[in-house]
Here is the input.
Amino acid sequence: MDSAVFLVALITVVGTAAVTIVKVARLWATRPGSASADVTARLEALEHGVQSLQQEQAETQERLDFAERLLSKAREERQLGR
Here is the structure.
């Protein structure tokens, strides 16, 4: 292989790798390390809201189960009373 062709190929490969590494390093360096205080506060408020909704949903489900049991009991009593 001609040394000039080899040198051009080597520079192309090494140059491409170097450019890629520099771009990745810049992207990595500009990445935020942690969320800001505002984002953290908003996230905590959302988590609290979700927990409240989950509690309300559980209470509503208990009430629905209770109402279904009462209705089922009333139906059974009507069928037996026929």
Summary: Residues 1-31 form one domain. The two ends are 103 Å apart (CA to CA). Residues 37-81 form the longest helix (45 residues). The chain has a mean pLDDT of 86.
